């Protein structure tokens, strides 16, 4: 006899485990199926984000930044040290410890909220049933009034650079290097490629990033992207735009293995040799094997599950969230969708504001934005005003020796409503969240300009950018108003 639930969630990543917890909080009998498991065949929660994505990469980013600071920046503060060394295995072990603490934390939250965690691969069957195949091959069937698909995503593989998990790796393998590669190649100058490239560059790798597109970070405001490229190149990243990788060849044995990369740029065919190569060209929805042919749920040609604005599929009572569906593949976007779906199942009229999804690239300095970019507003023929303020004249940033970057704010010329904010600089991710909150309440640039900000803080740069929108910045020369 199959188990019966009010809600069954397939996947325990940021979209899935959050949906399961919220559903249980709302009084729904909930189960969450997760295929990831440990050596004891016990479910490991958190999905890509906690296990091999957001969290472990940030642990390495912070460790590598502290190392680079000790190597290069302590002397600015008058601090002298002896020779600074990085113990890579210890850094990786610290990362693993943090991951373990957080995944165990999700398990504890399941227990506290009475969510039944089930280890195995889940497959949606006809009639709102879920077939679960455990790590040891056993199967069971679950029934539910509502099913939430949250299986996540996986790295995209490309034929010219087949991953061997040793010399050519994807984003997961790049988190497990036990030594700093002397020469490191990265295919893809997106979020993942730049973050991972930054980690190993700080630790001493000679990093070359291959980007097939001619534009650098096209989703980012052009002015901010241009400044970011200069900063990252100054830090040592060799970013090759318009460089299309056509093939790779691994040679040598053991620790002497190398990989030769063939690529084409505006100057013609070229080759480069590396000790390690990271393939970071994006991610694809993990929908293979998730849906039975007769379950009724539809996918598009790229494998994304088709949903409406409330994440409902074509089958009544079946929803899909996170990386499985349209929109940016971001943990926080998936989590908010999980909450929305759980609450709508419980009868609450909740929705996600997809216009205000914050984006962050955790390089150093960070790059973050919310809302529209200047190029988007031009394309949409929106009349707007611009305000900017550089961190180079922000007292707190100067005191911290973190003065690269700026805040850029965009506001509607007629209503003054804030349309977007783009930041490159220290704590950009946290600063842009201030503006996201303001935008959620339809704030104007004047609203922020009239808000008191404590001094000295990095957030004063946000204040000054808001003042600058109308030429009222106090601590910087005001630019002429855009015609």
UniProtKB/TrEMBL annotation:
Query: Where, by residue number, does FAD bind?
Result: 58, 122, 323, 329-332
Keyword annotations: Cytoplasm, Disulfide bond, FAD, Flavoprotein, NAD, Nucleotide-binding, Oxidoreductase, Redox-active center
Kindly indicate whether the keyword Flavoprotein belongs to this entry. Answer: yes
Q: Which domain of life is it from?
A: Bacteria
Q: Which NCBIfam families has this protein been placed in?
A: lipoamide_DH (TIGR01350)
Subunit arrangement? Homodimer.
Protein name stated in the entry: Dihydrolipoyl dehydrogenase
Species of origin reads Pseudohongiella nitratireducens
**Lineage from the top down?**
Bacteria, Pseudomonadati, Pseudomonadota, Gammaproteobacteria, Pseudomonadales
């Amino acid at each position: 006899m199959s188990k019966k639930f009010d809600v069954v969630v397939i996947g325990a990543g940021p979209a899935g485990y959050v949906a399961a917890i919220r559903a249980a909080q709302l009084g729904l009998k909930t189960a969450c199926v997760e295929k990831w498991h440990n050596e004891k065949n016990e479910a490991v929660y958190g999905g890509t984000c906690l296990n091999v994505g957001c969290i472990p990469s940030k642990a390495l980013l912070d460790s590598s930044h502290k190392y680079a600071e000790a190597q290069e920046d302590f002397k600015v503060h008058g601090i002298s040290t002896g020779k600074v060394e990085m113990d890579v295995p210890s850094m990786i072990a610290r990362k693993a410890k943090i991951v373990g603490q957080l995944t165990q934390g999700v398990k504890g939250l399941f227990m506290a909220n009475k969510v039944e965690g089930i280890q195995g691969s889940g497959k949606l069957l006809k009639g709102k049933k879920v077939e679960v195949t455990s790590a040891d091959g056993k199967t069971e069937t679950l029934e539910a009034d509502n099913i939430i698909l949250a299986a996540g995503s996986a790295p995209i593989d490309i034929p010219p650079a087949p991953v061997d998990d040793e010399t050519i790796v994807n984003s997961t393998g790049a988190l497990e290097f036990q030594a700093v590669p002397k020469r490191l190649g990265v295919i893809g100058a997106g979020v993942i490629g730049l973050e991972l490239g930054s980690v190993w560059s700080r630790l001493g790798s000679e990093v070359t990033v291959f980007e097939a597109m001619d534009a650098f970070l096209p989703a980012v405001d052009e002015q901010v992207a241009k400044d970011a490229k200069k900063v990252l190149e100054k830090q040592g990243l060799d970013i090759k735009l318009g460089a299309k990788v056509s093939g790779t060849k691994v040679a040598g044995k053991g620790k002497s293995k190398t990989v030769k990369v063939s690529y084409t740029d505006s100057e013609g065919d070229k080759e480069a040799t590396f000790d390690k190569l990271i393939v970071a060209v994006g991610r694809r929805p993990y929908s293979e094997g998730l849906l039975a042919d007769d379950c009724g749920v539809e996918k598009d040609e790229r494998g994304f599950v088709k949903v409406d604005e409330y994440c409902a599929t074509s089958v009544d009572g079946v929803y899909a969230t996170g990386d499985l569906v349209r929109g940016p593949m971001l943990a926080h976007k998936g989590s908010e969708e999980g909450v929305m779906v759980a609450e709508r199942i419980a009868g609450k009229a909740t929705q996600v504001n997809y216009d205000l999804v914050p984006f962050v690239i955790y390089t150093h300095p960070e790059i973050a934005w919310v809302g529209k970019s200047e190029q988007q507003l031009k394309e949409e023929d929106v009349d707007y005003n611009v305000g900017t303020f550089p961190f180079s004249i922000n007292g707190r940033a100067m005191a911290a020796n973190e003065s690269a970057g700026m805040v850029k704010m965009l506001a509607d010329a007629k209503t003054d409503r804030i349309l977007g904010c783009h930041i490159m600089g220290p704590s950009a991710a946290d600063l842009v969240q201030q503006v996201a909150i303001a935008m959620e309440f339809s704030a104007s640039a004047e609203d922020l300009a009239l808000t008191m900000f404590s001094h000295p803080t990095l957030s004063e740069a946000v204040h000054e950018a808001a003042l600058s929108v109308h030429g009222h910045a106090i601590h910087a020369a005001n630019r002429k108003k855009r015609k």
